[in-house]
Amino acid sequence: MDFQWSLQPMLKWMRCIGIYLESPGSVIGSPFRIWIIAFGLVVFFVNICRNAIFIGEYFPKLDNSSSEMSTPVLWNTVISMSNYLFVTTGSQLSLIVGSISRWPGLIQILRQMEKEHFFEAKHYRRFRRICISALAFLITVLVVIAIVGTLIILPIDMPIVTKVSELLYPTLVLYVFSGAAMFSCVGWITSDMFMILAEKVTQQLNKSCKFNQTDWSRRLDSWRHQHYTMLQLVDKINNCYSGLLLVLIASSFVMMINTSFLIMRRDLNLNILLHLSILIIEFGHFAMLIYVPHRIRESAICFTKTLRCLDLDNQILQEKVFLKSIFRFIFLISVLYKYVGGEQLNFFIVDALDSLPKITALGLFDVNLHLAPSVISCWILFYLFVFNFPCFPSI
Length: 395
Known about the structure:
Layout: H1 3-16, H2 33-64, H3 71-115, H4 121-153, H5 160-168, H6 173-206, H7 213-264, H8 272-308, H9 312-317, H10 326-341, H11 343-354, H12 371-387
Helix pairs in contact: 1-4, 2-3, 3-6, 3-7, 4-6, 6-7, 6-8, 7-8, 7-11, 7-12, 8-11
């Protein structure tokens, strides 16, 4: 078992939608690599052309009907459609660029972990369950999109070609959810890596009496190396998905504001339950995006707390208490304190606390749970503005 086996469900899904992600199991690329990338680029340019045609057809009609709509409703409609065009195009572009230029560096870190045997078979099974859960979610999204699109579009009287085009157009949302799911998988696996490292420290702590000074020093060096490698993995994830996170978080915020506006209109012709469902889905999508980086950071903090539970001086010196020579005993105390019991461990803990991992959106802001209060405050401010709008009763 390896990362190739663990990530296989999501890697195959991403290739099916035209995003080629290099596999950790082979240095040589797949023979279908060029065809997959070409398919993804074709879909991307078709999406751009379709969006251009939509803008050319829809916005003039919207301008002609502006006299029948209030200004808030008009602007809300324009922002909603622009947001959809932005998120589908931006997420697809971010995934293509990230898969070509950033993903290979991330794979190199995973290959290094495999080569140095960081994890066991049970850990790879744990990683695979995460990917299978994400794949099941994406299949559910695809089924829901297909059912809703069929129920809405098929009854409309239009040519077959137009119907097929209208049915395929909503599937572009799959790129949004696929990008978020892939980021969540890699991020969740990384947070589990820190937890596994903390478990290793706990296990060694429970049976510490079996190890001497040299063993503890060697294990500290091993833990330090693994921790540094995991921090490198977080940096690669940040480089690969920071642009996508900016697109998804900004779009989710706009979508939540837009849906809230539609619900607040209290239009009798409006399906409130449908828009409430959309609002809940968007908020859940946003919550997952900010929770995964928070979980990575908390797992790293948990590892640091586990290190602080080590008391290597006492554990190692217990084995030396019966030494016959008092001078040798004093000498061992000084050596252990300097190299194992004191400075080495303390420096490791301080370094781990100073280098806690974090995920950013293109360096503009940190992606963590602190975004939630900011979004909620903006949400409340929007409500206050709309309720005090002079034309609100008539919009």
